[in-house]
Amino acid sequence: MIDVTSPTFWPQLIQVLLEGTWETLYMVGIAMVITTIVGLPLGIVLVGTERGRFLEAPFGSRRLGQAINAVLGFVVNLGRSVPFIVLMIALIPFTRLLLGSFIGTGPAIVPLTIVAIPFFVRVVEIAVREVDPGLFEAAESLGASRWLLVRRVLLPQATPAILLGAATTVTSIINFSAMVGVVGGGGLGNVALTYGMQRYSWLHIVGVVIILFVLVQLIQWAFTLLAKRAGIEPAKRRRVAAAETGVEPVKA
Amino acid sequence: MISIEHVSRRFGDGPDAVVALDDVSIQVARGQIFGVVGQSGAGKSTLLRTVNALERPDSGRVVVDGVEVTALTGQALRTERHRIGMVFQHFNLVGNRTVAQNVELALEATGTAKKDRRPKALEMLDLVGLAHKADDKPAQLSGGQRQRVGIARALASGPDVLLSDEATSALDPETTRQILDLIQRLSRELGLTVLLITHEMDVVKRICDAAALMEDGRVIEQGTLEQLITTPHSRVAAELFPVGEAHGIPGHRIVDVTYAGLSADRPVIAQLSRDFGLDVSILGAALETIGGVQAGRTRLAIPGDETTSRRVIDRLGDHGVTAWEVDPATTGTIATSASASTSASTSTTKAEVPA
Ligand SMILES: Nc1ncnc2c1ncn2[C@@H]1O[C@H](COP(=O)(O)OP(=O)(O)OP(=O)(O)O)[C@@H](O)[C@H]1O
Ligand SMILES: [Mg+2]
Questions:
Q1: Which ligand has the minimum distance to the alpha carbon of residue B44?
Q2: pLDDT band with cut points at 50, 70 and 90 for residue A2
Q3: What is the pTM of this model?
């Protein structure tokens, strides 16, 4: 049982929470970095290899484009449809093979990344699909290479939507990171489990909830700010402005 | 300069297939401004897009300045595209990059060194009169200004050919005029060959040297404006000079007279009345400045029979004036638009009236 009058209780509580927060940030941060590095190109390739898109025939082969598209589509859908708890358990042998152990904060990153990638690929896919096809056409007419097209047209245009989607992705990684605590991962999930459930310390639970709430709010706020910085599309900006001022947007 | 040879393109298969281009051949001379007109769905955009290989024809070939574009792929095609600029109806500017950055994209595509890109982009913007907007975002510009950016971007790589797909269709009449004048000026200054698509006859009238009319994927007429004007039953000419319906007058024959250039000044019709002692009445007339040349068309009613009208037409021919007889029966007297226009189109193919 807990004893709030004990002189060691509060310092311990704070230390446990800080450690848990740090572990959570560490797991989620690294998982998100890897997710971005892997998911961003995959999302672009997934849309690009569709019929009539800029990557429909990589290395001049439409067959290859179709194959890449089909395989990617399948893997992403599979990844998205497996429940996290099942994925996490299924990945234990793989994680052990990769890192020698499946217990702890480090190994927890593996399932978190694997679950986040398909999610993020979907985010990128939607963002890329929203880019005006006329822009691809314009870039093509300029004789731009695919790489230039991706860097100078596709990414600038898709970035705001990707950032907004990334906020949702991070939030769900945080979500899943709590679950990882159950199978020996660290972080705030583990704090809630060991102190809250096994030692009945509701104060720990409250602490975890508050920290998670603040974290999610901060992330949402930061990514929204970044997305705005990256430039919302003019049409959307007009809509936003209209919503704020109550004036209908004027057609350009 | 641009040679489109027997190009065909169909979309889809089986009964739903759309033949967008059906054995289309068009020749555009160097330095010419060539307009393609036609109804929506006639295949104009598809045709234009074969010139820079955004669209691949099923058969036929496209040659631009001796290079067979239809045979190019990969880097060779990209390099060729640097020589063919394109502007779009909806401008297609990258919204969250500045005006200068939009132009710089074209320079980056050609491999221009980083430090040279901005000065060159500013030079291009200056050419279209927008250097002062270099650091604005496209959303801060008017439609006409955006199209200027589109033109600057298209010309940044120093192309010989400019393709324009309805570049002025989203603009108001005054802005349209400014953009057309800009295109014309640049074409003169830079020696550009321009292939443009439009559904507005005014565009053709204002800047084109030559034109083609497309219908259902086929080219119905093509030639320089002067040739088209003096071609009997030319539909392009009829649209350039709307003289109205040909109403039949009992005992009269209806003759269309067209003149371009000098002959417009000659009092041909007055002389006609004197020579033949005929009471010629004018049913309609249109006078336009086309390609900087005065040109006109007059619809006459000539009393008498076919022999009289034949003699009149021959005499006009002696004066260097093209004239031909119009059959009032086929051009229709009831001006209900749909039926009138279909019957008019049959008349152009059926009526074999000697010119
Ligand atoms: N990618 C495509 N897939 C299927 N059909 C197409 C495609 N592009 C064009 N078409 C069809 O080909 C025909 C010609 O189209 P095109 O866009 O060339 O016409 P257009 O003359 O430019 O018309 P508009 O004046 O409306 O722009 C149309 O029937 C159109 O539906
Ligand atoms: Mg079109």
A1: 1
A2: low
A3: 0.82
